[in-house]
Design brief:
This protein has three helices and ten strands; from the N terminus they run αββααββββββββ. It is α+β, with helices and mostly antiparallel strands and 164 residues long. One of its GO terms (molecular function) is acetyl-CoA carboxylase activity.
Amino acid sequence: MDFQNIKELINIINSSDLAYFELKSNDSYIKMDKSLTRSLNRNVEEEETTKKESNIHTKEEPIQEKNDFLENKLSNIQEEVVEEDTVIITSPMVGTFYSSPSPDSESFAKEGDYVKKGKVICIIEAMKLMNEIESNYNGKIVKCFAKDGDMVEFGQKLFEIKED
């Protein structure tokens, strides 16, 4: 089948109501499927008809929509001012926060305590395993964000430490 015959066949199929056409011959195979383009054209026609029928004049403002989206995202972010020499220790996993090895024991670390690098500062229980969380810094604990028995998420703030 030569190019001109294929071109004629495409024009005939396009002008017809056929949504799918397949032709097999000795040396060629042609398959045409208009179902996707027809549904797209139908949706565009319906949208245009709806706009014509309603006397509402719409002005598309994609830039404004993007700005609104970004403003919403930014408003969800809470900004915190952290002092110059302070660092935040965050949870490395999801689990239950414990400040001491047992309910009767004293806390590993509390606000005002001085901690050294490598000292256990809390336990996070995850899947029945007790995971000791160690300080990566030397310094004084300025704030403890979690309370005993709290569920903590990955990346959630646990301690704020003022480094030496």
